[in-house]
Amino acid sequence: MLRHRLASLSLAILAALTGSAGAQTAALNSAVAGQADRAYPALQALYQDLHSHPEIAFEEVRTAARLAAEMRALGFTVTEGVGKTGLVAIYENGAGPTVMVRTELDALPMEEKTGLPYASRAKAMSNGRETFVAHSCGHDVHMAAWVGAARTLVALKDRWQGRLMFIAQPAEEILAGARAMVADGLFTRFPRPDIALAIHTGNGAYGTVQFRAGPAMSAADSFEITFKGRGGHGSAPQATIDPIAMAARFVTDVQAVISREKDPREFGVITVGAFQAGTVGNIIPDQAVLRGTIRSYLPEVREVLLAGLRRTAQHVAAASGAPEPEITITPGVGAVMNDDGVIHRVEAAIKGSLGADKVLVAKPATASEDFSVYALLGIPSLFMHFGVYPPERVEAAARPGATPLPYNHSPQFAPVPEPSIKTGIKITSATVLALLGKP
């Protein structure tokens, strides 16, 4: 009888403790949501200002200064000009781990066609020509949520202990900013973080977030191949070595690397995106230039694709009796890899913040991100995608035959600001509080 009473008492104590912990978690989530609500009017103004004044890679001077002022006002120690235009903001709150939260500064060299009242009409010089500039990848949403999360965490500093390392990174769109910041002493001039976090917009429903353990985004490398021939008159091809024929054959033949050399169970793609040759229709030129991209998740797949591309180009040229082609492969970035241990520590907090049904398991994305640079340096990392569209629009777009919603890099990409920014604040704050929260 005594044993049964003790067991009942233990269960009662456990239930009381569980209920108390649940109440504390609910109160903390409510506090985060309240902070996001209070901060939003100022964040909306910040978002619209950033959206209307985008800047391209390594030219984000105005953008960086705007964020630096926001972070200094919150009490962060801010260092500007890291990696040319990046900034590092540090907030000390007692002994504990260092959590790095990254946002991006740069916009895209493209025209916005959303028709929004605050749409960008900014222009800049890119690759020697004038172009429109737009935040069509959602970096303005990220920056507003980044500032909002910083405000929230400072307001709730009695609930956590450790160091915040908020970084604003330049040149993500050209996959160069992370390396530039690291080369400029990101982890030597400043504390080396224990964990790195980043969020990114997608075309899902606002109020939802997606992430997965393991590969989250692909590795990216670029290539340029110059096939060299012998030019001549289009009416006498026998007197020439036609580089256009070689380049066209390569475009087709290189896909056999994907279908016959790569493990079909693993992701990998080789895309030729530019084919430049000749000037008029009756002249066979003396060279043809191809440019493209290579994407993969696993290092071993990456090696298969790179070796196969090089070998195919050489064999195509040899088969035509042409000189060896010039092959330039420019290493890009590795795959974004999410750490299992980090997810295990924060998943419950994110579910508590948004609701368990709003936290989804992501499929690996085929696009690439230089956030991968930090994980490759040994920092456990987590990269999350969150939605930006009304749920009913997402549902309608998923129906057979429906037009897909504009995705990142579309000139019509137009997140709904308030719920999107608040979602970014909630998931960032919940994750940091789970990592640094006091027991």
Question: Briefly, what is this?
Answer:
This is Amidohydrolase. Keywords: Hydrolase, Signal. 40% of the residues lie in helices and 24% in strands.
Describe the protein in words.
The chain is an alpha+beta fold. The protein folds into two domains: 295 residues, 3-Layer(aba) Sandwich (Aminopeptidase), CATH 3.40.630; 115 residues, Alpha-Beta Plaits (2-Layer Sandwich). Helix content is 40%, strand content 24%. It has eleven helices and 18 strands. The strands form five sheets. Strands 1-2-6-3-7-18-8-17 form an eight-stranded mixed β-sheet, with helices on both faces. Strand 1 and strand 2 form a beta hairpin. Helix 1 packs across helix 3, helix 1 crosses helix 11 and helix 3 packs across helix 11. The longest helix has 51 residues. About 1% of the residues have low confidence.
